[in-house]
Amino acid sequence: MTRPGDPAPAREAWLLSLIRPDLRPYAERAPLALPSVTALLERIGNPHRGLRCIHIAGSKGKGSVALMTEAILQHAGLRTGTFTSPHLERWSERIRIDGHEVSGDRFDEALGVLKPEVAWLTAANPDNPPSFFDTLTAAALWLFKKHDVDLAIVETGI
Asked: What burial class does residue 45 get, using C-beta atoms within 10 Å of its C-beta: 0-12 exposed, 13-18 middle, 19+ buried?
């Protein structure tokens, strides 16, 4: 049974399939991280271009800072998009627009856009396909662009 905020079961299975263990040392895989997400963003129209972002990094407190920043910007009258991880109960908790978690339908729509592009990139470069985190980041940026947010608040990965 699908819970509110979850993608359709087939898309959820696909999303989980993107979690691939990589046993290479970080120094070997780090240079490959940017090309895969860059290629994926390009395939979906570079939704990050022209999107004003606040990036939040660090080892502790990123989610709290992201949500406090979201509240401040909304109080100032700005439309916000917020991307955090991990989720606690629902996949869609990771992506918020105007202070609200995106619906399962919106989340599923974004995954539907991304799935064929991830498949194409995986076939084109099986040694460095888009990752689980690449795909979720791209989904958030695509939704932020689609819903015309004024500012995106993005928890950064490595």
From this structure: exposed
pTM listed for this prediction: 0.90
Angle 108-87-153 from CA coordinates, rounded to 5°: 85
- Residue 82 carries which side chain, given as an amino acid letter? T
* Low-confidence residues of the chain: pLDDT under 50: 1-2
At 57, is the secondary structure helix, strand, or coil?
coil
User: Looking at this protein, which amino acid is placed at residue 75?
Assistant: H
Q: How far is it, in rounded angstroms, from Cα 102 to Cα 5?
A: 7
CA distance 57 to 59: 7
Reported as a single tens digit per residue, the pLDDT across 100-119 is 999 989 999 999 999 999 99
How far apart (Å, rounded) are the C-alpha atoms in residues 75 and 79? 10
Q: Quote the tokens at residue 131.
A: 């990752």
